Amino acid sequence: MKTVQLLKLTTGEEILGRVSFDNGLYNITMPVNIVQDSENMGFEPFMPYAECESFDFDSSHIILAVNPTSALTNLYLHATEANEGGGGLIDTSAAPSQQGIIV
After folding, report:
1. Cα–Cα distance for residue pair 3/30, rounded to 1 Å
2. Could you tell me the pTM of the whole model?
3. What is the C-alpha to C-alpha distance for residues 77 and 62, in angstroms, rounded to an integer?
4. How far apart are CA 14 and CA 62, in angstroms?
5. What is the dihedral of CA 3, 73, 69, 27, to 10 degrees?
6. Residue 25's closest CA among 72, 60, 73, 74?
7. pLDDT for the residue 2
8. If you ran DSSP here, which 8-state letter would residue 77 be given?
């Protein structure tokens, strides 16, 4: 069963997403990074140029796995739930549709 959790990686990154744990691996689906400035908070896709929406992490790379506040959980679900059926506020597979290099 996947629950919304906040993972703190050994790299210092904090990733929010739908998480399950099995056989020493954390699987996180539709992960986002939390970004904020002095006034606002938002989400950006984790590894936006990857072709997958699900990532496996060995437990040795996880410092903490915690449940986020209910407000953060609700905001994340609102931003990503429509994406499960196609389209939503956050495209967690945000690789650009056009190929090429931006100069």
Report:
1. 12
2. 0.77
3. 22
4. 10
5. 30
6. 60
7. 80
8. H
Predicted confidence (pLDDT) per residue in 39-64, tens digit: 888 899 999 899 998 999 999 999 99
Residue 97: per-residue pLDDT: 52
Whether 32 and 2 have beta carbons less than 8 Å apart is answered as no
Q: In this structure, which amino acid lies at residue 87?
A: G
**Six-digit token pair at 30?**
């539709």
Give the span between the Cα atoms of 26 and 1, in whole angstroms. 12
- Which of 66, 69, 74, 76 has its CA nearest to residue 8? 66
- Phi/psi at 42 (nearest 5 deg)? -155, -175
- Distance between CA atoms of 103 and 100, rounded to whole angstroms? 9
Tell me how crowded residue 84 is: count the other CB atoms within 10 A of its CB: 13
